[in-house]
Amino acid sequence: MPIFNTKLTDYVFPIVMAFCFLSLMAQVKIDLAWHELDIPVTGQSLAVLLVGYVLGRKRGVMAILLYLLLGILGAPVFAKGASGWLVLTKGSGGFLYGFVAGAWVAGWFGDRGLGRHFLQGLLAMTLGTAVIIAFGLLHLTVLYGFEKALEYGFYPFLPGALVKIILGAGLLWLWHRLGFYSGPKEQIKRDL
Which of 27, 58, 106, 189 has minimal Cβ neighbours within 10 Å of its Cβ? Predict the structure, then answer.
């Protein structure tokens, strides 16, 4: 009899570790001064896409949902230690919703091992980021109108997003070069 349950080590443990990683990366931030506002550029979106890629679509999305659920329930895991249901109704709410879809997109690439080449990783990170930004802009448009959404939710974040896309692609490439990726996750797909 194995010491550790396979379900625990293969499914639960990586999801919990991903939650911890996401929570920590959300606290890594640079405040950009933009039109008298401090807009936090955090490590959240980078972490979301890396988690999605590494864990795959299903476990990656489960990790993001756990992160959002615990944040909604009061764990101070969002940017600047924020938490609670109201965070989802404010300006950053759409980006948080977009994390689920962005992780799924990155996980699609991860499930296929598309990231072993830098350009594949760049595509995975770019599409995942685009999905997150689209959700964020849609939410901001509903709250403030399209022009304000672009002014406060797109333009100030674009340089940081580009840096995170390139950094993420490099990390995916490195993940493969170091031999951590072991091929398609057929066994995990069958069990979930």
Answer: 189
